[in-house]
Amino acid sequence: MMPYVQGFVLAVPSANKLAYIDHATKSVALFREFGMTRMVECWGDDVPPGKLNDFRTAVQAKDDETVVFSWLEWPSKQVYENGMKRMMEDPRMAEMGEMPFDGQRMIFAGFLPEMDDGPRGATGYVDGFLIPVLPDRKEAYFAMARKASPMFQEHGATRIVEAWGDDVPAGQVTDFYRAVHAEDRENIVFSWVEWPDKTARDAGMKRITADERMKTPPAEMPFDGKRMIFGGFTPILDQ
Question: pTM score, two decimals?
Answer without folding.
Answer: 0.95
